[in-house]
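Sequence only, no structure available. Ideas?
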Amino acid sequence: MRHLREVRWGSLLFLTFALMGWAQPAGSPPQITFIDFVSTIAADSKPVSGLIGFSDPDGDVSEVAFDVVRGKGLVYDLHR
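Reply:
I predicted one. Tokens follow.
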């Protein structure tokens, strides 16, 4: 019976420390400072470049990915 009680205390301590670690506030989030991008992108499979500036006070950003989630003024030219 003593062995089961030790396992329970160990599990309880692990759970307590894990929750304390997860409950800590997450530092400062990165902020986008500017976006410099073309206003029109042709659908011709050519890459288009732009700049996105950001600040990261914690320095913990290792990778950034951006996806188009909404487009405005989409035009199709079927006679090309």
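The helical segments are 2-23.
Hope that gets you unstuck.
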